[in-house]
Amino acid sequence: MYFVQMMARDFTDRVLAWYDRSARVLPWRIAPGSAETPDPYRIWLAEVMLQQTTVAAVAGYFARFTERWPTVGDLAAADDADVMAAWAGLGYYARARNLLACARAVVTDHGGRFPDSEAGLRALPGVGDYTAASVAAIAFGRAAVVIDANIERVIARHRLIETSLPAAKREIRAALAPLVSDDRPGDFAQALMDLGATVCTPRSPACGICPVMADCRARGRPDIERLPVKPPKKAKPHRHGIAWWIERDGAIWLIRRPDKGMLGGMRALPGGDWADDPPLESGAAESGIVRVDHGFTHFDLTLTLVRREAPPEAPPESLGAAGEGIWWPIAELDAAGLPTLYRKLTDKMLERDV
DNA sequence: CATACGTGGCA
DNA sequence: TTGCCAAGTAT
Fold it and tell me: Are A52 and A92 in contact (CB under 8 A)?
């Protein structure tokens, strides 16, 4: 019993000592040992942006958001379209919709302050198990069990957990819970994430410099990269679609996609549904064709742009799937906040036109 | 428990 | 070039 506690403390201390030496410097992070108080708004915003998204991709967005909306109250008061446009290019757009819903819930239901408990945070829109635990630990010093993909990898290897994800999560949590630092839970969580991101990497882990290599059960194994075991991936189907370039007086017609589904709530070019089969010759034969290939998480898409005149008797409004649209000046297209798929298409179209 | 949901970087 | 992967959440 005492031995187990001693080993746990030893693991925790070694991880924290390594973090004190090796912590990454990140815009949303307070350096270990600093006297600064974390701002729950900035911690939460960064955690949401970082969901399934790399540090490099987030940095610029985090800077722009915090500059434009310095507090959760500022964000709650923002226009939906401005926030969606500011999120454009970052992906997983449900996060942006939930971000606004969460900010407004904090203002409306919590007096403008984030709940300081894991359970309170977990009840907010877009805040799942990971984000609730990480904000509780980092912003409020709660000894929450934080588990992200980095920490899963570190623990699965250290304890040689062979169970496949997501079933392995239960064992990982059980192994991690007794190791959590009561004194520095936020630093402990960030330390393990840094360790996973920079030392215990998916491929070619640097076991030689790992602070917990002494008792790592996977250390030295030629198949260490196998852990954590993941389920086999399914093949991605290929789909096709048409988008319309409708131009008038130096502007093009943009619509807003429905909240649910792909690119939900984002501004986009009008067009037809995406189908399993290529579009018919008749549509593709028109002038002004540009084509892009784009890979989504669960399917690949070939999207063909067709120049189209809005017939006088059929107002362009009817061409937008959401029935909602706007004439957007082509010269200001950068500010439209188009997701990458459409951004690729318009970039290519303008390059071609010049 | 499985699936939908973006994007960019790296080997 | 193709596949893998990243501080996950909602349903």
Answer: yes
Taking the C-alpha atoms of residue A308 and residue A285, their distance in angstroms, rounded to an integer, is 12
- Write the Ramachandran bin of A300: left for phi over 0, alpha for psi from -120 to 50, otherwise beta: beta
Nucleotide B10 C1' to residue A304 CA (A): 29
Residues 87-126/A with CB within 7 Å of nucleic chain C are 92, 94, 98, 125-126
Q: Where in chain A is CATH 3.90.79.10?
A: 238-353
Residue A197 CA, nucleotide C5 C1', distance (Å) = 11
A32 Cβ contacts chain C strand, under 7 Å:
no
Q: Which residues of chain A have pLDDT under 70?
A: 1-8, 280-288, 310-323, 353-354
Q: Which nucleotide is nearest to A190 (CA to C1')?
A: C7
Distance measured from the CA of protein residue A306 to the C1' of nucleotide C1, in angstroms: 29
Could you check: is the Cβ of residue A204 within 7 Å of any atom of nucleic acid strand C? no
CATH 1.10.340.30 in chain A, residue ranges: 2-226
pLDDT tens digits, A105-148: 999 999 999 999 999 999 999 999 999 999 999 999 999 999 99
| Beta strands across the sheet bearing A290-295 | A238-245, A300-307, A290-295
Residue A254 to residue A317: CA distance in whole angstroms: 9
Q: Is the CB of A297 under 7 A from strand C?
A: yes
| DSSP-based three-state secondary structure for A179 | helix
Q: Is A47 a catalytic residue?
A: yes
Q: Residue A21: name the closest of A214, A211, A206, A216 by CA.
A: A211
- A241 CB neighbours strand B below 7 A: no
CATH of domain A2-226: 1.10.340.30
Nucleotide C2, nearest residue via CA and C1': A295
Q: Is A328 helix (H, G, I), strand (E, B) or coil?
A: strand
For domain A238-353, give the CATH number: 3.90.79.10
What's residue A233's pLDDT? 87
Closest residue to B5 (CA, C1′): A92
